[in-house]
Design goal:
The protein has about 375 residues and is an alpha+beta fold. The chain is built from nine helices and 16 strands. The strands form two sheets. Strands 1, 2, 3, 4, 5, 6, 7, 8, 9 and 16 form a ten-stranded mixed sheet that branches. Helix 2 (about 70-80) crosses helix 7, helix 3 crosses helix 4 and helix 6 (about 235-250) packs antiparallel against helix 7 (about 255-275).
Length: about 375
């Protein structure tokens, strides 16, 4: 029998599972752990649950919507940082740490008005991981657990920049509607994706964009006269390790670039070891002048971080790099779709990508009776 309920009657409360209060060597202790009605367990961690990495990897492979930004390579280093406000909510089906059904990273925002489900560092795709096995039941339990009085979290959950036609958006809206919970879809926008061959002649550029593109071409011709411009891709663990060393040297001048690089390095190293990383780079006279860091999994590539040498920022080398990446990825048999992560770009080169996708933010009042609060939050975010 489905556990999705359309009434708003009283529900049996979740129960603390006292047997899990025992501290085990080598395992992070959850901030709270509850038993849910199905017999599964809900837990919150503010420290890295390293012992659950294999289960997290398995969930990432079987989720209704794949999201490399919610995998251990991103999650565990961030939870290990001092003063991090990030937390991770996990749902497990049955005993043990091997049967994860949901993973959601989040932090409390807006002076406690809502929780924001987000990728690490706010740059990346933000959809939580939900198992393909009974996804609506899992989401129903997740919303109920997050709303529980013992967990002491805000009553509104915000899921930003989701693919409007993505599986998480569809299932989360369906569960909220079935439970009678208020939800709002805001910040609708369009962005292009690279899937299939490009047609530069048929790109839908506005007159202003065509003028800007011609200016870029002139800058690239001038750059070629200054020295040989090279393009290289690091595609295996040894190549990515070497290129990360070069990228470290590129980011020594600007404090913001250095901070971004230091933050991404543990994740990039882990992705590289797992053969889930590509780094695209431009060189002038043998020296790196721009680089794009691109995680890849199951045929999906995301442009995650882009770095440009400070003295090259006016030469449109980032646009040239994205265009060369575009040409390469259309020929790469291991990549079916390329997207720029929310928080990156947009780049004029994306206008040549043939597919247009919708994105939107989903707000769910995970407790009944919060219609006014969610409307106020939606208005605040629109403003």
């Amino acid at each position: 029998m489905s556990i999705i309920r359309k009434d708003l009657g009283q529900r049996p409360p979740a129960r603390l599972k006292s047997k899990l209060s025992v501290v085990q060597p080598g395992k992070a202790v959850p901030d709270i752990r509850l038993e849910v009605r199905s017999g599964g367990e809900f837990s919150l961690y503010s420290q890295a649950p390293d012992h659950m990495e294999p289960a997290m990897d398995r969930l990432a492979e079987t989720a209704i919507e794949r999201n490399i930004f919610q995998t251990p390579a991103f999650l565990l280093p961030a939870l290990g940082e001092r003063h991090s406000l990030l937390r991770v909510a996990l749902m497990e089906d049955g005993d043990g740490d091997d049967n994860l059904t949901a993973l959601m990273t989040f932090s409390v925002r807006g002076n406690g008005s809502h929780l924001l489900a987000h990728a690490i560092g706010d740059i990346g795709y933000h959809a939580p991981l939900i198992s393909r096995h009974r996804p609506m039941a899992t989401l129903d339990q997740l919303f109920e657990a997050l709303a529980g009085s013992l967990v002491n979290l805000p009553g509104i959950a915000v899921f930003p920049h989701l693919l409007a036609d993505g599986a998480f958006m569809r299932f989360a809206r369906a569960v909220a509607a079935a439970r009678g919970l208020a939800f709002r879809v805001t910040h609708a926008r369009r962005r292009r994706a690279l899937s299939g061959p490009i047609n530069p002649a048929g790109a839908a550029l506005t007159p202003g964009e065509r003028e800007a593109w011609q200016a870029n071409l002139a800058k690239w011709e001038a750059l070629n006269r200054r020295g040989k411009v090279g393009y290289h891709i690091a595609r295996n663990p040894s190549e990515t390790a070497l290129m990360l060393d070069e990228l470290s040297a590129l980011t020594t001048t600007v404090a913001e670039d250095r901070s971004r690089f230091v933050a991404l390095l543990p994740t990039a190293k882990k992705l590289g070891r797992n053969d889930q990383l590509r780094i695209h780079a431009l060189y002038l006279a043998g020296e790196m002048i721009a680089a794009a860091v691109q995680p890849v999994t199951a045929g999906e590539a995301w442009i995650w971080q882009v770095f440009v040498r400070p003295d090259m920022e006016q030469e449109a080398v980032d646009e040239q790099l994205i265009m060369r990446l575009t040409e390469w990825n259309t020929r790469d048999a291991n990549i079916a779709v390329t997207r720029a992560a929310p928080g990156v770009g947009p780049y004029l080169a994306e206008r040549f990508w043939p597919v247009e996708e919708g994105y939107a933010t989903l707000m769910v009042a995970i407790r009944p009776g919060m219609e006014r609060a969610i409307d106020a939050l939606a208005r605040e975010h629109r403003d």
